[in-house]
Amino acid sequence: MDNPIVIGIASWLFPGAGHFIQKKNRRGLIISASIWIMFIIAIATGGAYYPGFEYRDGQLLYLLNAFAKLGNGLGAAISFVFSVTPSPDAAASATFEYGGRLLEAAGLLNYLAVVDALDIYYGRKK
Fold it and tell me: Which end of the chain is more exposed for a tag (fewer CB within 10 A), N or C?
């Protein structure tokens, strides 16, 4: 694949895809598995419902949370679907905030995976 835009977008949408495209299968598998496992645990523990406030309540924290969640690519759409109809006792769960932080960490890790895939493409990394 000779298009860094396609590599970047594919890597963002599906974690590890940019590495698979470049035949870095082991690295792609490790990245894909770690990010998706973090994402699944985050959704299972109620992370899609965090934060429990709106933009007007804390703009900076809300924007940082949205940016981190958006890093999940396809997972961002999945987490949005889960967050549309939260259960009434979602915030009462002991794992509510941990799930939110794990969801953010998965998104931020995916941003690093996109940069890594592009570094491999440009020859800055093997």
Answer: C
Residue-number span of the structural domain to which 58 is assigned:
4-122
CA distance 92 to 106: 23
pTM score, whole prediction: 0.86
CA distance 4 to 118: 7
Per-residue pLDDT of the chain (126 residues; tens, 9 = 90+): 689 999 999 999 999 999 999 999 999 999 999 999 999 998 888 877 766 556 677 777 778 888 999 999 999 898 888 777 767 776 677 777 888 889 999 999 999 999 999 999 998 887
> Is it true that the peptide bond before 51 is cis, omega within 30 degrees of 0?
yes
Three-class secondary structure of residue 85 per DSSP? coil
Tell me how many domains the chain contains: 1
- Strand, helix or coil at 87? coil
Overall residue count recorded for the chain in this entry: 126
